[in-house]
Task: inverse folding
């Protein structure tokens, strides 16, 4: 647990970089520090590991004042990723990752084993990369090694300053996904800096939005999007904040049961009668074991044809973990009104439609409009 | 004349070998001393809050360089004889060359350490390195190429200056030169001059290789693969 209590920083030249900041990051929580350039994010991070001395206030880690600890001991217990990666160019990937283990005087084989383990964790093949130098890695690979390095001695706390900055959007997205997957496993207490609102929404359990050294709003992403506290927050999260809210939900959170599911062996005319009764124009078709086959429409059902002959196969399907914004663009791209959600065995779990997504948006707009 | 010089070389290989060895020995001792003191001083003055000391030290060292070698030998002879130490031969020459060698080494060590990317130092400190660990594990390895370039400069320059040491009896490849001047023997002058030049060229190549070898693999620019 990290607790900042009325922390302030005034630099020697009089710049008030951080003012009266109170922040509590719970154990295992992923806290994102968000804000425009120069708002004091880096300053705040560096005060946590004492790279920058505080002017006022106190910082506690697990209830202990960080100034009660020996500074290097404190730092070896906090995984630190500096802005712009900062790998040591003269050291191999292995030595870079094992920096803190080396400082802690782990035996050499254990350092190497740890480096291998962490490389695997961040999705890099140890056999290929462990003895390379940073100059022999791509930007994305360097970022991964940077993440691995800050996990070096398995610290309970991570302080990461824009670890995925300066990288192309596709790689960035991938790194974010992987890091979330890793965090789900390792459950570190994380203070993570970014100035990218989308990254903040995607990664953070809670977001601390700062402006000119002041904490403006500290809330979970949904609250930040639906109830921005003031004009600054509203502008910062952007006019499309309602659409952004779609990123917070997964298909499985809002999908509905299909109005009618038909097994492939059923009699076409009985199905047609059922659809007429329920005023349905289409139904979803599955194999007897539940595997999804496609759609059938009311018009196509004839006594002369078997159901198998009139299947319209799906052009695109989604998984239960698909984010709503992705689901929406899948639907728009392939011009379908209904998206089938399948599990890994291709069994039909539910459907998403424009109506469902519109209702979700409506709720968020509703919440947004009831703000004070 | 060239022919005579060549004749001398093939008839007195032992002499030439001896002078070269003497020369090398002086260079080795003087530059080893200059390297040790130069790097230590360079590290010291690159420390926090030592800007004034650094400026002074580098200023003094550059003044040192402007003193002609004969004048420096003279001054040293005076000091050494006052201390009842050998005032001619090996000792004053080695001291003079050490002093000359200091400037490039101090200056390069100082600049190289000062110019290490602050982000590297911060990464080290942020992960819990002590100041000594930052120096040894981050600053020095990154500064090595530039420090070695300074040492290379010092060695090559000193090979020339050491030749003048023969004038005060330190031996080396200056000896045939001075003897040639005294006896109107152009061939001897040529022999000395050519071998000093060869030595300087070889030393430059050798130090270049050493510079390459001591540069940490990850920061070498030309990649050998
Ligand atoms: N050493 C320093 N001396 C004086 N002022 C400083 C110093 N370091 C930072 N500042 C100032 O403090 C303020 C906050 O800087 P900080 O680096 O914390 O911003 P940031 O939020 O991390 O910005 P960015 O997103 O650009 O990294 C800025 O106005 C900056 O100019
Ligand atoms: Mg910053």
Result:
């Amino acid at each position: 647990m990290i607790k900042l209590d009325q922390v302030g920083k005034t630099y020697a030249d009089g710049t008030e970089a951080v003012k009266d900041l109170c922040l509590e990051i719970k154990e295992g929580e992923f806290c994102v520090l968000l804000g425009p350039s120069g708002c004091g994010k880096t300053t705040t991070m560096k005060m946590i590991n004492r790279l920058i001395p505080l002017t006022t206030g106190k910082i506690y880690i697990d209830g202990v004042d960080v100034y009660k600890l020996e500074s290097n001991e404190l730092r070896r217990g906090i995984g630190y990723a500096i802005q712009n990666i900062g790998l040591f160019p003269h050291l191999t990937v292995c030595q870079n990752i094992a920096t803190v283990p080396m400082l802690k005087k782990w035996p050499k084989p254990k350092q190497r084993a740890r480096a291998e383990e962490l490389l695997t964790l961040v999705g890099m093949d140890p056999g290929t990369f462990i003895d390379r130098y940073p100059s022999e890695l791509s930007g994305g690979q360097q970022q991964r090694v940077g993440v691995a390095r800050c996990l070096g001695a398995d610290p309970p706390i991570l302080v990461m300053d824009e670890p995925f900055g300066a990288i192309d959007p596709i790689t960035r997205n991938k790194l974010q996904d992987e890091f979330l997957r890793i965090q789900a496993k390792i459950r570190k207490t994380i203070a993570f800096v970014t100035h990218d609102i989308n990254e903040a929404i995607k990664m953070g359990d809670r977001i601390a939005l700062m402006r000119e050294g002041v904490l403006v709003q500290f809330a979970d992403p949904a609250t930040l999007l639906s109830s921005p506290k003031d004009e600054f927050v509203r502008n910062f999260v952007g006019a499309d904040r309602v659409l952004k809210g779609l990123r917070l939900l997964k298909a499985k959170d809002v999908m509905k049961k299909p109005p009618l599911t038909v097994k492939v062996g059923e009699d076409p005319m009985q199905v047609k009668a059922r659809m007429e009764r329920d005023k349905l124009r289409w139904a979803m078709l599955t194999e007897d074991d539940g595997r999804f086959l496609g759609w059938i429409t009311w018009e196509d059902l004839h006594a002369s044809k078997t159901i198998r002959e009139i299947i319209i196969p799906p052009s695109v399907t989604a998984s239960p973990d698909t984010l709503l914004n992705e689901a929406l663009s899948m639907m728009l791209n392939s011009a379908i009104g209904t998206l089938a959600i399948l599990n890994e065995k291709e069994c039909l779990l539910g459907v998403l439609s424009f109506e469902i997504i519109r209702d979700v948006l409506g709720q968020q707009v509703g919440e947004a409009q009831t703000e004070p | 004349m060239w022919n005579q010089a060549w004749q001398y070389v093939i008839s007195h290989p032992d002499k030439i070998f001896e002078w070269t060895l003497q020369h090398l020995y002086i260079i080795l001792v003087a530059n080893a001393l200059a390297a040790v003191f130069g790097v230590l001083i360079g590290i010291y003055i690159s420390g926090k809050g030592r800007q004034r000391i650094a400026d002074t030290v580098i200023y003094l060292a550059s003044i040192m360089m402007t003193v002609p070698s004969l004048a420096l030998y003279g001054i040293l002879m005076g000091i050494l004889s006052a201390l009842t130490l050998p005032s001619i031969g090996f000792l004053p020459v080695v001291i003079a060359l050490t002093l000359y060698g200091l400037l490039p080494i101090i200056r390069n060590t100082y600049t190289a350490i000062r110019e290490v990317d602050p982000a590297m130092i911060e990464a080290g400190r942020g992960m819990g390195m002590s100041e000594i660990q930052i120096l040894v594990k981050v600053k020095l390895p990154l500064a090595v190429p530039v420090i070695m370039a300074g040492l290379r400069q010092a060695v090559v320059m000193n090979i020339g200056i050491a030749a003048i040491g023969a004038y005060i009896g330190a031996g080396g490849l200056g000896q045939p030169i001075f003897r040639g001047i005294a006896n109107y023997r152009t061939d001897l002058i040529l022999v000395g001059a050519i071998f000093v030049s060869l030595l300087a060229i070889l030393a430059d190549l050798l130090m270049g290789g050493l510079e390459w070898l001591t540069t940490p693999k990850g920061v070498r620019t030309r990649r050998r693969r």
The CA atoms of residues 31 and 191 of chain A lie 5 Å apart. The mean pLDDT of chain A is 89. DSSP finds 16 helices and 16 strands in chain A.
